[in-house]
Amino acid sequence: MGKDDEKCLLSDCTFIHLPGYAEFILTNRLEFFVRRIVEYSFEVDLPLLRHLSSVSREELVAISMSSNRTLLEALANNEIPRYINESKENWLANMLPVITREQILSDDITLLSHIRRTIFLEVLADYSMNPNEWSDIMKELDRFTVMLDSTLINTYLLLQQERLEEVGRALEGRETQWLEAQAIGKIGSFEWDLVRNESRNSPQCLAIFEIDDDETYPLEKFIQYVHPDDRKKIETAFVESLISGECKCEFRYEKNGNEKFLLLSGMVGYDDKIPVRIVGTVSDITEKQSIIQKLEASEELNKQAQALTHIGNWSLDPATGEMEWTDELYRIFGMEPQSEKITIDSVRPFFQSDHGRLMVTGLRYALRSGRVPESHFRISRRDGGAKIIKGKGEVIFDKNGKATRISGTVQDVTNEFLLTEHLKDRERYLDALNRSLAQKNEQLTNKNKELESFNFIASHDLQEPLRKIQIFSSRILQESAEGLGSDVLLNFEKIRNAANRMQKLIDDFLAFSQTLNVPSILEPVDLNAILHDVQIDLLPRIADKKATFHFTNLPVIDAIRYQIKQLFINLVSNSLKYAHPEKAPHIHISARKEKSQDQSDVAVITYRDNGIGFEQKYAEKVFELFQRLHNKNNYSGTGIGLPLCRRICENHNGSITVIAEPMQGCTFTIILPVKNS
Amino acid sequence: MRAFTPAAKRILLVDDDIDDRELFVEAFSFIDDPSIVSTLEASDKLLDYLQSADVLPDYVFLDLNMPRKSGKECLKEIQQHESLRNIRVIIYSTSINPRDVAETYQDGAYCFIQKPNSFSDLKNILQKVLTSKARSFSLNGGYIFAGSQNS
Questions:
Q1: Which of A123-132, A322-331, A501-510, A660-669 has the highest mean pLDDT?
Q2: Torsions phi, psi of A214, nearest 5?
Q3: Residue A145: CB atoms within 10 Å
């Protein structure tokens, strides 16, 4: 229906026959007319009535009376356009009596026209008996109905349009929200038409795939930017999805140089069992992935750390007694990691003797105190071995103070424990050793005291009678020699020699034992001067043997003067005593400075003679106390001279060694520190 | 206090050994110097002897190793008495432990003599000690030990 027609109908709205009939009904048949309309409305089950179920029939009649009176008055007064207009306005303005405008359906409009027309016809016989007039009224009535209905239908359509627009606006809002949500969640959506092989992608989907302005981009094309290692995976996922109906795949994707992790999930749509499209989402999970990787790395690290330190973690649900263990804890107990479910009851038999009871008591105590006290337990492993473990933990309470979880660590301290035990053993052993050393020390001190008194005996009590023998025999020889026979004199001479020899033994022995005991002073000692003094002291014997010396530029060293002199007296005495039978003794002494191992200066003194020497195998023996290589009848010696030399050298933090050959002389190497502290 | 200086030197030997006392006295008969020699066996009687003496000795020879009271103790006692300080105390010992030598010099000994092995040495030493004006004896003959050697 065009707008022009409507205008025409509305403009041509003067009626000739209808107003009179309306006037008749108003005056004579109004109540009947209204009651019949209401009755008939129920008969034909007018949809609108359903909204008025709470209104009584009489009330309905009253409402209808009012509205029909308005209609009839409008007809009677030939004011149809105004009436139609007012009806429309009332409806649009939602000013209808009793009902709201949305409750009116298109059925209501047409059905109500039919009802009204039917009742008009019923009453017509009362108004006129003239068939021609009926016909005229009928025509005008139809025209009025058409006018009213068309207006009402248009109004209805207008309202429907409005509502559609409203719904559209709501949908638009929803879509905006959806797209925003996609952007925020980094989730894009796509619909892939498998038949036409093109994809409709949401803007976020394009952003994730880094595709510009191509909404129909075929999804399979993106495969070229998928990491080569993941292409097979995603292709397989797509193929399998065509059968299973679902696909889910994580893969690496790199288009403009930055690699990211994407998660694609989709549902396959079918048309008569043939897959025709995949609808789904794609999300950027790079951050999530990196967090997962970090977590995995740290978990792996934690596992390694646990394995290294033999520390396992556990967590216990106090309500059920069920426990969660880390892999290492299983290993500590000699089990395959995660091979079985652990409960407090299943773990208890692992503990030896009463340690299981102690463990349970500790946990029970923890529920009150909040802390599992650190304790050591002895356990038997599943695979048979025994371990010492150290456990501790803490309790997690909820806001009501109820313990929800106990968690803690267990460390395998078997090795440490054994080490500690071992150390304790060592300590006990060392204690015993120390005690024994203390005893030995005491014994040694006593021995030293004995030795000191022995020294005293040697130096005093032995010498006392010896000196008497010497002094009285010398008096006889000096003062009474004339009155004695030569045999007696010879015997006296032998007594004196033996006494002298004993005197010398005692003197040497005393000198040796006192070398360490005497408090002594280190001073710069010029070895050249020492050798001069030695030559003077030994002058008679040197002259007797016609011995010669050669030494130059000997160093000055920090030493105990008289000991160094004693050292050279002993060496020179030896050289004179063990002189070669056919050669006059020649003594050659030289020295050089060297660095010792600790970089301090040492004097290396070489003392060489041309005497009878000895076999090199005795090179150490000659430094041992009372060891003599030669018969004392041939060579007078006490076996103390060279040991004393060694003692003096060691006393100065030095050393003396000898190289010798029979009949070729000896070469002594004496090493003495230049500076001594 | 000595009222006058006698011409002859007064000498006292404290030694428990009878042989040494006899040899000592005998040796002085060969010494060409006027001297009056006395001996004392018991070292623990020395202080009484000195304090009751009319005339104090010029020299006291002390053996070191004696019963009841050692020569070192005797030396210290003498040094503790102001009136006895002028006596020259000479240690006359068989042993020549350097520690003993050092200690006795420190305690005020005049000199330290080892008992000689021959009678002629004994005469020579005593002659030297008595005739020397100072303590700078020659050490060439042995037996006499200077305090400076070990201190």
A1: A660-669
A2: -130, 90
A3: 17
| Beta-carbon count within 10 A of A279 CB | 13
Q: Which residue has the tokens 């003692």?
A: A647
Q: Which of A300-314, A380-394, A613-627 has the lowest mean pLDDT?
A: A300-314
Last residue within a domain, chosen from A235, A252, A284: A284
A139 domain residue, yes or no: yes
Domains in chain B with CATH codes: 9-149 (3.40.50.2300)
Q: Under an 8 A CB cutoff, do B119 and A478 touch?
A: yes
Question: How near does any CA of chain A get to the CA of B118, in Å?
Answer: 4
Are A76 and A36 in the same domain?
yes
Q: For residue A467, list chain B residues with Cβ-Cβ distance below 8 A.
A: 94, 115-117
CA distance A464 to chain B (A): 6
The two structure tokens encoding residue B28: 């002085």
Q: Are residues A23 and A144 in the same domain?
A: yes
ipTM computed for the complex: 0.72
Q: Does B15 have pLDDT greater than 90? A: yes
Q: Do A158 and A127 sit in the same domain of this protein?
A: yes
Q: Where in the sequence is the domain holding A236, given as residue range(s)?
A: 186-284
Q: Do A460 and B94 touch (CB under 8 A)?
A: yes
B31 touches chain A (CB under 8 A): no
| One domain for residues A216 and A121 | no
Instruction: Classify residue A496: in a domain, yes or no.
Output: no
Residue A301 lies in a domain: no
Q: Is A265 helix (H, G, I), strand (E, B) or coil?
A: strand
Q: At what angle do helices A641-651 and A561-577 cross, to 10 degrees?
A: 150
User: What is the reported pLDDT for B150?
Assistant: 34
CB A233 within 8 A of CB A207: no
Closest Cβ opposite residue B120 in set A478, A503, A562: A478
Question: pTM for the whole thing?
Answer: 0.38
Across the A/B interface, how many CB contacts are shorter than 8 Å? 45
Identify the DSSP state of A624: S
DSSP letter string, A158-192: HHHHHHHHHHHHHHHHHHHHHHHHHHHHTEEEEEE
Same domain, A246 and A263: yes
Comparing CB atoms, the residue among A460, A518, A519 nearest residue B95 is: A460
Average pLDDT, chain A: 84
